[in-house]
Design brief:
Distance between the termini: 58 Å
Strand content: 15-25%
Radius of gyration: 25 Å
Largest sheet: 7 strands, mixed
Order of helices and strands: EEHEEEHHEHEHHHHHHHEEHH
Number of strands: 9
Number of helices: 13
CATH architecture of the largest domain: 3-Layer(aba) Sandwich
Oligomer: single chain
Helix content: 40-55%
Length: about 250
């Protein structure tokens, strides 16, 4: 069963399980999305590279599924699905006003977050649930899945007035120098740092093989290995580090 309604999603595709009758009635026919039987989850949000399954439950649903064993069975299937790719994520949405009678159910949902690293959203009404799903589907999937490396946080924080303990680390010092150069982003600095573990290594190659240094910098990729350092960026690095551009950069 496939039904397509009118609506343009900006960044990610959205599929809704056909059994979400009340929510589909609320959405109406002004949206464009795919309605179909979903094997897992109530919503599937995806791109060519990322995929999110959203499971929507009311507090009463949570209670019933815990009592009849479906909660654990469903959780294990979702976790198995997620384990097959680092570009997959599970989200649970629990809908409805919380009452103390659902305390055990709430504790079970907290265990999903802490024990199984599953994001959990609480919404009070169906409209809020749809707003949450819509927000995720309209968002940039790369930003949702992107994480910052420890090195990136460390070198950037040093230039934003955040106090950090001193590091006896030659590589971090080299990255710090690179990042201080205008136009050099932290991903650029980190990518260069993968080839030179210290200032000493960089300048040693400059002294021993300047053209080899040039080629190494030209071959570097950063930003998911899709971008290259331009010759102007390389020139800027060499200038700031006091290297004579006429001794290194060759005509290509």
């Amino acid at each position: 069963m496939y039904i397509k309604l009118k609506f343009t999603l900006i960044n990610m595709n959205l599929e809704i399980d056909f059994r979400e009758h009340k929510l589909l009635a609320h959405i109406g026919n002004t949206q464009e999305l795919v309605i179909k039987p979903l094997v897992l989850g109530d919503f599937r949000i995806y791109t060519d590279t990322h995929e999110i399954l959203i499971e929507r439950k009311t507090w009463t649903d949570v209670r019933a599924s815990i009592r009849d064993g479906r909660f654990r069975e469903q959780r294990s299937r979702l976790l198995l699905w997620r384990s097959e790719s680092s570009e997959r994520q599970i989200i649970y949405i629990v809908e409805g006003k919380f009452d103390k009678e659902f305390l055990i159910e709430k504790q079970a949902m907290y265990r999903l977050m802490i024990g199984y690293s599953i994001p959990l959203f609480f919404t009070e009404i169906m409209e809020e649930t749809w707003e949450t799903v819509s927000f995720i589907s309209r968002s940039d999937s790369d930003k949702f899945f992107r994480t910052r490396s420890i090195e990136q946080d460390q070198i950037e924080s040093r230039f934003k007035g955040v106090h950090k303990k001193n590091y006896e680390n030659a590589k971090l010092f080299f990255l710090q120098i690179l990042f201080s150069i205008r136009g050099i982003s932290s991903p650029m600095a980190i990518a260069i740092g993968e080839h030179f573990q210290s200032c000493h290594e960089f300048f040693r190659q400059y002294l021993d093989n300047p053209h080899g240094l040039e080629q190494t910098l030209l071959d570097i990729r950063y930003g998911n290995k899709e971008k290259k350092l331009t010759k102007s960026i390389i020139q800027k690095i060499l200038n700031y580090l006091g290297c004579n551009k006429n001794e290194i950069l060759s005509e290509i």
